[in-house]
């Protein structure tokens, strides 16, 4: 087979169109072993597209859980529009592509010996390693809050699963006329529009079942993603049910008072019947333990390939990576996984790395039939990922209901397509 040339790699985008045109693949030297840690939006795609680009690669995906629950669209569980089961996927489809799946918890990485260490003495050798570990939480930034309290009393529900169910049960049990407090984190964090979509989805439930209730968003920031579109949608469908308090106006939360169910701000205390605290974030513990993070708490990478700048032959994608102007989102992780896969195959085959193209789209649902979105296309400029001016943008502010309904349909279509890409 002929060597895959540079043209076959150029412009890796959301759908990786090169796969439809590349006529042949060269086997990488000695069937290189690629280990991928993390079976979410980034890791699954990286593993799948490595095999598509070079079927000779020995690709192993290591994931702690037997199945994956999607964070995107999980806010719909809170409104009762969706079940957790509809967000749950297994890894059998990836196995059908020749990817080895190992359910194991990674406890360490040896970058010198190029070994990944799992439980019970298991270890995995790699020639290249992709780490897609996700995020962890900066509990110390809100005094009195902890992982234990989040799991039992005041959930963050920023990872779909048990805490999503807990928050839903608390909303069901709340009295009509109660107050829901949402503490929104500082940048950067996973899914920038997420807290504000969450407020809308909770309001959708309350409007129909507990219309005297109130939602108060206490924000560390003074502005947020798609702000004008959100506030217009909130007002249209929920009146004054949702109130947003920015950081300068007292929205920065400093402590949790367990005894009286209050959040303690810079200027005021806020009492809630249901309290949802979304903490500030950083890269997951594995990234810290493996020395892949810098002083920011995130993972610096060569943004052309996503290779770590701290250790060679290790790549970091998804929410944990410092990826220039790209947000921390599922679609961004998907795009990064494809770019990273193409870069690794190019490196192994000794050809020039492709000039990457990156994309992101984020849909938010204010009601089941009213969606808004933001989209962007990115390019590499002087080593940093930057948004291309004029490529992308926001939903139009004065759109008619038919367009908003189509955007809601697009949101569900996007979810179906991207999860099929991941797990199909």
Gyration radius (Cα, Å) is: 22 Å
DSSP strand content: 25-35%
Q: Strand count, sense and closure of the main sheet?
A: 5 strands, parallel
Cross-sheet strand order for the largest sheet: 5-2-1-9-21
Task: Name the poorly predicted regions.
Answer: 1-27
CATH topology of the domain at 143-277: FAD/NAD(P)-binding domain
- The residue fraction in helices comes out at 25-40%
Number of helices: 10
Structural class: alpha/beta
Give the CATH class of the domain at 143-277.
Answer: Alpha Beta
Q: How far do the termini sit from each other? A: 27 Å
Shape: globular
CATH architecture of the domain at 143-277: 3-Layer(bba) Sandwich
**CATH level 4 superfamily of the domain at 143-277:** FAD/NAD(P)-binding domain
- Compute the average pLDDT: 94
Write the layout of secondary structure elements.
Elements: E1 33-37, H1 43-53, E2 58-63, E3 67-69, H2 75-79, E4 88-90, H3 92-95, E5 100-103, E6 108-110, E7 115-117, E8 123-125, E9 128-131, E10 135-137, H4 147-152, H5 162-173, E11 179-184, H6 194-209, E12 214-219, H7 227-238, E13 242-245, E14 253-257, E15 262-265, E16 269-271, E17 274-277, E18 281-283, H8 285-289, E19 299-302, E20 307-308, E21 314-316, E22 321-322, H9 330-349, E23 357-367, E24 370-381, E25 384-394, H10 401-423
Parallel strand pairs: 1-2, 1-9, 2-5, 9-21, 11-12, 11-17, 12-13, 19-22
Antiparallel strand pairs: 3-4, 6-7, 7-8, 10-18, 14-15, 15-16, 19-20, 23-24, 24-25
């Amino acid at each position: 087979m002929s060597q895959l040339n540079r043209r076959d790699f150029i412009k890796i985008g959301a759908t990786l169109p090169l796969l439809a045109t590349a006529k042949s693949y060269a086997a990488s030297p000695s069937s290189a072993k690629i280990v991928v840690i993390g079976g979410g939006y980034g890791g699954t795609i990286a593993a799948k597209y490595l095999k598509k680009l070079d079927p000779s690669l020995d690709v192993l995906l290591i994931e702690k859980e037997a199945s994956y629950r999607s964070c995107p669209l999980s806010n719909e569980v809170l409104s009762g529009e969706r079940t957790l089961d509809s967000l749950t996927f297994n890894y059998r489809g990836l196995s059908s592509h020749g990817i080895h799946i190992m359910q194991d918890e990674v406890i360490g990485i040896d970058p010198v010996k190029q070994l990944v260490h799992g439980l019970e003495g298991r270890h995995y050798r790699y020639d290249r390693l992709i780490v897609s570990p996700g995020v962890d939480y900066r509990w110390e930034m809100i005094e009195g809050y902890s992982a234990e309290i989040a799991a039992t009393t005041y959930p963050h529900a920023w990872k779909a699963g048990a805490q999503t169910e807990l928050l839903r049960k608390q909303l069901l049990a709340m009295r009509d006329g109660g107050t829901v407090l949402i503490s929104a984190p500082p940048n950067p964090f996973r899914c920038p529009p997420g807290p504000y979509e969450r407020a809308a989805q909770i309001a959708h439930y309350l409007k129909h079942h507990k219309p005297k209730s109130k939602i108060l968003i206490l924000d560390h920031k003074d502005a947020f993603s798609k702000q004008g579109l959100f506030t217009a949608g909130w007002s249209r469908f929920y009146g004054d049910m949702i109130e947003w308090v920015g950081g300068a106006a007292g929205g920065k939360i400093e402590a949790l008072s367990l005894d009286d169910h209050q959040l303690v701000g810079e200027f005021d205390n806020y009492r809630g019947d249901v309290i949802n605290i979304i903490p500030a974030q950083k890269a997951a513990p594995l990234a810290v333990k493996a020395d892949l993070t810098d002083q920011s708490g995130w993972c610096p990478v060569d943004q052309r390939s996503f290779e770590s700048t701290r250790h060679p032959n290790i790549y970091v994608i998804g929410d944990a990576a410092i990826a220039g102007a790209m947000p921390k989102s599922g679609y961004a992780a998907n795009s990064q996984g494809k770019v990273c896969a193409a870069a690794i195959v190019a490196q192994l085959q000794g050809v020039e790395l492709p000039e990457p193209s990156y994309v992101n789209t984020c849909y938010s649902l204010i009601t089941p039939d009213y969606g808004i979105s933001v989209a962007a296309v990115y390019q590499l400029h002087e080593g940093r990922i930057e948004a291309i001016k004029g490529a992308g943008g926001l939903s139009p502010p004065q759109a008619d209901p038919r367009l908003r309904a189509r955007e809601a349909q697009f949101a569900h279509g996007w979810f179906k397509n991207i999860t099929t890409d991941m797990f199909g």
